[in-house]
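Appendix B. Worked example

We walk through a single record from start to finish. Start with the input: the chain for Caspase domain-containing protein, Actinocrinis puniceicyclus, length 915.
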Amino acid sequence: MPVHDPATSRAVLIAVDDYVPAEAPGPTPGVAGDVEEMSALLTDPALLGLTPEHCTVLRNPPDAAAVLDTVYEAAAAATGAFILYIVGYTLAAPRHPDLYFALPGSSESRLYRALRYPDVAALVRDTGRAADRIIILDYCYDGEVPAPHSTGPAALEAVAGASVLAASAKDAKSWGPSGQRMTALTGALVRTARSGVPDSGDDLDLAALHHHLGRDLASRQLPAPRLWPGQGERRIVLLRNTRAARPAAARGDGGRADGQAGAQTGTAPGAASAERAGQGPERERAAAESDASDRTYNDNLPKVPEGQDAALTMAPAALADWTAQLRTSGWPQVADEVLAGVAARGVPPNVALLLVVLRMAGRTAEADQAEAIVLMRAPDHFAEIALSLVQSGYREECARLLAQAARRPVDQIRRLARALTARGGKPQAALLFAEATGHAPDAAALEPLLELLPDLGAAHEVGPILAEATTHWQEGRVLTLAEQLEAGGVERCSYALYARAAQLAAGNWPPDRFAALLRRMSAHGAQDEIDTLLGAAEKAVGPFPSLTAYLATDLASADLSALAYRLLSHAVPAYSDVELVALSSYLEAGRQRDLAVHAYATAALSRPPSATVGYIDVLRRHREAAHADKLVLGVLNGRPGHIVGLLQALRSAERVEDAERVVRLATQAPVGVAAAVARELWESGAEQDAARVLDVLAGRPLVELASALVALAVSGSTAALLDAQLRARSPQEYIDAVSVLRTARRDEEADLLFAALGRGAPQQVCAAVLALTQAGRHQDAASLLDSFAAQAPPIEAVEAMALLAESRQGAQAAGELLISALATRPDPSMILGTLRRVRASDQTDRYLEHLGASMPPADLVVLASNLATRGCDAEADLILTRAARRDDFTQLRAAFHEAGRHAQAYHLTERHGEY
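Next comes the structure step. The output line below is what the pipeline stores for this chain.
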């Protein structure tokens, strides 16, 4: 609608600058300029065009009566627009909540001399027949703002039937900026009227004017004005828009108004086009296509009402407040149109926060309406809004938005999901897909949606993404989604969802169906999901032997025996003997005798040996002697030490044959179990039983016996229990077994077997050393010699030296063996004594002299030191006497000093001096 006819319109301008605030040095500057500029504005033919006699100015009126008379006369004469403008101070009166405008001579204690605003407002409301009634209040409080004014309802300025534009300044400095001709609000109003508001049509209505004033004042860090539209939903036009007739091209801003260019992107006017120009033809073309796509969607979307474009850049909280004021002031349709326009065309992050603000304020209907419009926006914009909610921590609101989006046609859902995925929102795309499946009536309807899954990742990745996206769902919905995916042919994607609903599936599905699911998972290697589901099943069937038996039977029937055994291992320990018998009966009925034996063995592991005896008797009474033996083996496998108590219980009951049978069964157990049993028997004092087990074990291949050595090595006292039996093995068998173990990376077993060879007979060791040397494995040969030399009895060590010396390749090895025995053992005198008995003494002396002449200094220091400290002084002296003649005497002497063997160093020096 156009501006009102100036001939039928009236204005009253009231300014009080003769009132001096309590803390001000003098009258506030700017008030006089305010009325002059406002008078010029309203009488300007290009803006409103009032004649001077229709625009009354009251400056410093003497009393309230003079004001009220003038207002009454002008309001009574107006049939077009009536405009009341007041600029000055209001008085803060805590005991009087009404607004009082200060007049000359008034004060806080003399309110009777002030202008009471409700009296003026009543005249404006009730007088005359003006089509539009507009009040502009440019004021500041004198003193601290009382609570009713600052925090009370916003009804102090509001007037029914009139539109009120008011300043909210609370201090004179911000209200009247230093050095300015006008106060803040009036200055902004005059600037806006003179320059016009772009894109607001031919006329300026109060709403557009209010928003433009807000931006102007905010840019100057001044208080924002407030607007109470009290005249229904009509646009209230105040002035003509001086910018309306200006062509967009002439503005030089690409058709966008000052302050608007770049507002949605946060860039300065022209910056977006400059940035796009530098992106090259391809990116510019892509941007143009995106813009065209956006326009296709936006053309059918709501727009903000004419003149309300400023709402697009308002902060969400401020926009929510303003629309609430519109509703309370009787303009609900305008509020709806503004929210719809912003939801359709606002900046995505702001729109996201607007949804949250409305929802948190309890304005659910408005939030739902805005949400419905967001769903119609371009996919890229929708994705930005959804992800903005997530990034701001409002996942619940995002989930609500996606749930509504999932009700749209499938082709639109696909576009939305792909837009989310392209922006890194895979979890949100997954949730959109999951929600959409709930609206698919059958597998055929689901098929188009399944095309989205490859965008989320590989099949094994999609399931976890869907499971994470639906963490807020009830288990029933998750289970339904898993079943839908499986029915749709993407079974691998469903496993993580089944695991999310594990408790529900385990507690409600029949055992055969549950086992079949685990079988399919096993075929795809989904071990984590299997563990989760089986854990839930263990809880679900635990108290009920029948359910446990049915599920274990179905697992075994599905070729998942390992899972059946695991199920029993977790469930059985909690069962009583009566429940155990019942479980066994159910398993027997299902032809699962091995599982029944495992159940008894599992129970026996946590119960005294007498219980095991009882379980053996139960199985034998059922003519299941073979299963009784399996029970014993199962118990020994899980608890080797149980054999000690079991044998004691049987022998105490004089069941000798049963005890002997248990020992025989122990020898038939896997070699590691048998060795562990032998160790337990040995350590409990049952050495005869242990020896019987070990004698049988000794016949196993060396590769298997290596596992027995590991079991025996747990206790150092039994580490060599098999040595006597192992001395009969050939050296080549040792070498081959160690090679096999190292190839299989069973290094611990290889090391223990090699150490056992080092404890072997001299013939074994010598033959192995020579074989290793011939095979080029010199390090292994040296290691074997060192091990043998460190522990062999003196007679065996000397025997090995003799055997090596007799062979063509063994002379050096014999010498190394002697050196190791003399240099590291605590009994070198015994080695030398034995050597002198089997060989000529002078040969031994000559060999020692040879060592003194040829050994490296470091090794010679170790050898001479050990001989000297172990009672072999003569031999040490013999070595040093020969060493004194070496060319590297100086280096040798230094080596003795560095090792702390100073006496021997001096002795070496004396011998050297003799030469």
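Two observations about the output. The CA atoms of residues 274 and 357 lie 35 Å apart. The radius of gyration is 50 Å.
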